[in-house]
Write a structure and sequence with these properties.
Cytochrome p450-Terp, domain 2; binds s-citryldethia Coenzyme A; 16 helices; Citrate Synthase, domain 1; mainly alpha; 2 domains; globular
Length: 374
């Protein structure tokens, strides 16, 4: 038996996937064979969600049917809405999202049916309802009325509508849509691997997504987009940025929104997201964040040769759109549900229990002494 330890499963290939391909060498990411930057320019998020879930881009009638299916499933139960309203206002919205999906599992009639057909139906329900649950908490914790979803609005428009009671300019909606497309899927990242591990015991999709949300919350994973904003808020103004980031590197601190386990010369999603961040900064007449962005990025590359990951541009983009900082990672969730679901279904189709080994480094074999002898 080979007992060499690969901490963090560094460089280990654990299974096959047909959902996406991350190609660090040519700095490319494809979903089902399509380059993400191409999808961002030519598709809306619903088309990409359909692609990730089903393996093919939809034609017009398939897309209309999918949109209708989402419309039909967007409402959450009164029970779940009341639970969300009564959650402690200080709860992190990621914990609310996690609990909401868990409650959806209690309410779903097919929770224990793991057939591919039932899993697809449940995936669509979770995908449609989770933004409604997150938006409900966005408003409820501020003492505002909960706004129900509206028929015939797109996925992104609906999220703005449920959070703010209005839909912003189409350029802002497009930038949000692009961020969702870029966040939809990224192979065996921590949360997806968590979802696949949970699934490998033949557990259910609600449980797997609940676990994936908990995993995504961490600042080394999805939680980084919130930390980026906290960092930019600490920097405060462009004039402080150079000194701030150099100090941080001198102190050997980890700079959020930079670095990646797979990409070493830049995350392939960043150029697209950066372009849309700059557009949003222009529309919202931002005077500081786009400048801080450039300064920190330049120093990180010059001093450390460490490039930004996708959480670096999404953080300030969501801020300029008006979202509270602790809602950034829940926005990541509403998109990544598609990738998680596709992987959960793939895992079910060719399942093998995920159960690695460990090398024991604890106490040597010893005898148990009775309580009065210890
Ligand atoms: C996501 O995997 C995915 O696909 C994830 C994701 C997705 O779509 O699902 O892309 C989304 O999670 C993006 C990553 C978000 N996280 C952050 O932005 C947190 C900051 N980044 C780092 O902590 C780090 O880069 C990781 C966690 C992302 C990657 O960690 P690794 O591969 O375990 O590498 P490491 O932490 O061991 O770093 C290697 C070296 C170290 O220096 P040395 O000890 O070798 O001298 O690079 C340095 C690190 O100190 N380094 C950083 C750094 N990232 C790496 N130094 C300062 N700031 C950083 N951000």
């Amino acid at each position: 038996m080979n007992d060499e330890i690969k901490k963090g499963l560094l460089g280990i290939v654990v299974d096959e996937t047909t959902v996406s391909q991350v190609m660090p060498d040519i700095n490319s990411l494809t979903y089902r064979g399509y380059a993400v930057q191409d999808l961002c320019e030519k598709c809306i998020f619903e088309e990409v969600a359909y692609l990730v879930l089903n393996g093919e881009l939809p034609n017009k009638s398939q897309l209309n049917k999918f949109k209708k299916e989402l419309d039909k499933n967007r409402n959450i139960t009164i029970n779940l809405r009341e639970i969300i309203k009564h959650m402690p206002k200080k709860s992190h919205p990621m914990d609310v999202a996690r609990t909401a999906v868990s409650v959806m599992g209690l309410e779903d009639k097919e929770t224990n049916n793991n057939s591919s057909e039932a899993n697809m139906r449940k995936a669509i329900r979770i995908f449609a309802k989770t933004p409604t649950a997150i938006a409900a908490f966005f408003r409820a914790r501020k003492g505002k009325n909960v706004i129900p979803p509206k028929k015939n609005l797109s996925f992104s428009e609906n999220f703005f509508h449920m959070c703010f009671g209005k839909v912003p300019k189409k350029e802002i909606v497009k930038a949000f849509d692009v961020s969702l497309i870029l966040y939809a899927e990224h192979s065996f990242n921590v949360s997806t691997f968590t979802a696949r591990t949970i699934t490998s015991s033949l557990s259910d999709i609600h449980g797997a997504i609940t676990g994936a949300i908990a995993s995504l919350k961490g600042p080394l994973h999805g939680g980084a987009n919130e930390e980026v904003m906290r960092m930019m808020n600490k920097i405060k103004k462009p004039e402080n940025a150079n000194k701030w980031i150099n100090n941080s590197l001198d102190k050997k601190e980890v700079v959020m929104g930079f670095g990646h386990r797979v990409y070493k010369s830049g995350d392939s999603r960043v150029p697209t997201m950066k372009k849309y961040f700059k557009k949003v900064a222009e529309i919202t007449k931002d005077k500081k964040f786009h400048k801080i962005y450039d300064i920190v990025e330049k120093v990180m590359i010059e001093r450390k040769n460490i490039h930004p990951n996708v959480d670096y541009p999404t953080g300030p983009t969501y801020h300029l759109m008006g979202f509270d900082t602790d809602f950034f990672t829940p926005i990541f969730v509403i998109s990544r549900i598609t990738g998680w679901s596709a992987h959960i279904m793939e895992q079910h189709k060719a399942n093998k229990l995920i159960r690695p080994l460990s090398k024991y480094s604890g106490e040597k074999y010893r005898k148990v002494l009775l309580l009065n002898q210890r």
